[in-house]
Design goal:
disordered C terminus; 2 helices; alpha+beta; Nucleoside Triphosphate Pyrophosphohydrolase; 159 residues; 7 strands; seven-stranded mixed sheet
């Protein structure tokens, strides 16, 4: 298989999972996804995930485990998803996104997921850890973008 790999992260913190709303391209704008991006030559999936989450959200993460499966995206691309722990930083929509939300158990239907992300999201929510792991950040917050309201988080072309 010669498909290009796109990695995405189910970023967990304090019993919640991070969702990101696409701002581009127009056909994906307004829909929600697990943040991530394309694997670069010479990178492992885990390395690409850490890099992409740093670039797109301004956070440091630790990949935990790959969710079994591969999901087709645009022709020539497949999606692979890892669970990841937020290590440091406050997530902000820096690239390709205009809003972020933390979703708790049973809240995955609160946003309009991209169709290709739905199976991975369902599995990631099943794996959602319970409890309140301390990460050194106030994860109830997400850094606002220039157009978003300030305050606590309300509940590239990747695809």
């Amino acid at each position: 298989m010669n498909d290009r790999v796109v990695v995405a992260g189910a970023v967990y913190d304090q019993g919640r999972m991070l969702a990101a709303r696409r701002s581009a391209p127009p056909e994906l704008a307004g829909r929600w996804e697990l943040p991530g991006g394309k694997l670069e030559p010479g990178e492992t999936g885990e390395q690409a995930l850490v890099r992409e989450l740093r670039e797109e959200l301004g956070v440091e993460t630790e990949p935990l485990e790959r969710i079994p499966g591969e999901w087709p995206l645009a022709p020539g691309y497949v999606l692979r998803v890892w669970t990841a722990r937020l290590v440091s930083g406050v997530p902000a929509p820096l690239q390709d996104h205009d809003e972020l939300r933390w979703l708790g158990p049973g809240e995955s239907d609160a946003v309009d997921w991209l169709d290709q992300d739905r199976p991975a999201v369902a599995e990631a929510m099943r794996r959602l850890p319970t409890g309140t792991a301390v990460t050194g950040t106030d994860s109830a917050e997400v850094a606002p973008d220039r157009d978003a309201p300030t305050g606590p988080l309300s509940d590239g072309a990747r695809h």
